[in-house]
Amino acid sequence: MNYQYRNFPTPQVVAQQFAMIFAEWAVHQLQEKEHLSIAISGGNTPQLWFAELAGNYTEKIDWAKLHFFWVDERYVLHDHPESNYGIACKLLFNKIDIPQTNLHPIPVTGDIEMDIESYSKDIENHVPVKNGWPIFDLITLGMGTDGHTASIFPGQLELFKSNVPVCASENPHSGQQRITLTGPVINEAELIYFLVTGIEKIQLLNNIFNEKPGWKIYPASHVRKENTIWLTDINLDAF
Prior knowledge:
Elements: E1 4-7, H1 11-29, E2 36-40, H2 44-56, E3 66-70, E4 72-74, H3 84-91, E5 103-104, H4 112-126, E6 129-130, E7 133-134, E8 138-141, E9 166-170, E10 177-181, H5 183-188, E11 192-196, H6 202-209, E12 228-232
Parallel strand pairs: 1-12, 2-3, 2-8, 3-5, 8-11, 11-12
Antiparallel strand pairs: 4-10, 6-7, 9-10
Helix pairs in contact: 1-2
């Protein structure tokens, strides 16, 4: 096992520790950069992280220099209870002093192809590009119990070989439409943090980390190890 990881006792502690890590990282990075581009994911653990930032870091981070994008979005209106953007605004962005222009939600107008084009252009206009790919300073990811990450599900591994930064996907369990960053964009990020909690994922992590038979079917296993750190409440030392 050569994954970088840290274990914590509970999901709340994972969120607390990542909030501290994130704040320290942002302060350090802004000593050298004028602004930072960050792509965030949805899910239960990020919600704890959002609440932790809003509760304890409103004055410790120069939010005006951070630009937030979304790793993926359910194709629902932003005021829908399942909207990743809407949840993040409710728990974090509505509670801190950040310019609205620093938030870059995935558009959901009803024309998915137009929205993909629009979001791709927004990324192109604000995120540095290297070798044809946008380079985010930081991306946060989660992992579902089926091994999906972003909105790339098992059976959709072609999205890790995509030649475009943003595309449509579909949740195979519910049939819900999604828009997601593709694998190449995720893997080009300067730094990636996986926030993974829940004992029900222990065997999944064991399969991925120890490359057991069939491990490559899980999209999360296709995220580069070199620039990725996993934070979890699962005791990985027991593997």
